[in-house]
Amino acid sequence: MIECNGKNIEFSCEVFPPKRNEDMYDIYKTLDEIKLLNPDFISVTYGAGGSNSKRTAQIATYIQNISEVEALAHVTAVGVNPEKLACMLEEFERKNVRRILALRGDKPRDMSDEDFKERYYKYASDIIKVIKDNGNFKIAAACYPEKHPEASTVAEDIKYLKEKVEIGADELITQMFFDNNKFYDFMDKLGAANVNVPVHAGIMPITAANQLGTSVALSGSSVPTELSNIIAKYSEDPISMRKAGVEYAIRQTEDLIKNGVDGIHIYCMNKFDVTREIYEAVVYDLT
């Protein structure tokens, strides 16, 4: 928890399950290191169509019961049916994992367009209602400060986001963004729509030049001139690129905290050192 101007701001980060069982030790080691920062929660992603769902549950259990940090487990609507979802929720309850991020999820590569179209749960809102009715869970939903790539307008996107909150979402976590003004404008629009739940700002430190293209493609985020200039300047200098990217994320985080954000959520890509550098810089500046 970070305190600024009398407001408590949650600090969290996200990890993802490794593809191979033999790499599980590495993620547990990373979690043991992240624990030292005393984050408010650690979220664990869920592979497309549930490809890593078992590892998600294993890692969330480790976070909750071994690391003794609150776990936020991702659950996607794509690839689950009522029976599978019920089993997952029962397992989370048994393992004391009580915080869930409900997502629609992307189409798995091995799923046909027809199967994707005919999937049982169409949207995140479909599983939010089920989760709300089947356990004592705190439910988070995703949001996009610059509009979901599939939404036709910002107004339409916020309309559906409001529906998710009314159905049962207790908090929101944004997709990564790189321009804080876009986030502040988004927050104003949420306020005007009477969407009044905590919003955690998602920060993705860009530590390698080739990382930006993939990140923007997934998030639909615009790239400010300052960040694009950093990429252009240091694209052939990995060490300087990493340093400049982390410093950009620190400046972005400090500005959000000073402007009263509810939470900071670091997309750390399983890199403890980056998470630590951001957290320690912010805490030092505030004390």
From TrEMBL:
EC number: 1.5.1.54
Protein name according to UniProt: Methylenetetrahydrofolate reductase
Native source species: Eubacterium ruminantium
InterPro entries linked: FAD-linked_oxidoreductase-like (IPR029041), Mehydrof_redctse-like (IPR003171), MTHF_reductase_bac (IPR004620)
Listed pathway(s): One-carbon metabolism; tetrahydrofolate interconversion; Amino-acid biosynthesis; L-methionine biosynthesis via de novo pathway
Gene Ontology molecular function, alphabetical: FAD binding; methylenetetrahydrofolate reductase (NADH) activity
EC category name: oxidoreductase
GO cellular component, one term: cytosol
Coiled coil: none
Keywords: Amino-acid biosynthesis, FAD, Flavoprotein, Methionine biosynthesis, NAD, Oxidoreductase
GO annotation (BP), single: methionine biosynthetic process
Cofactor(s) the protein requires to work: FAD
Lineage, top ranks: Bacteria, Bacillati, Bacillota, Clostridia, Eubacteriales
Family note: Belongs to the methylenetetrahydrofolate reductase family.
Catalytic activity: (6S)-5-methyl-5,6,7,8-tetrahydrofolate + NAD(+) = (6R)-5,10-methylene-5,6,7,8-tetrahydrofolate + NADH + H(+)
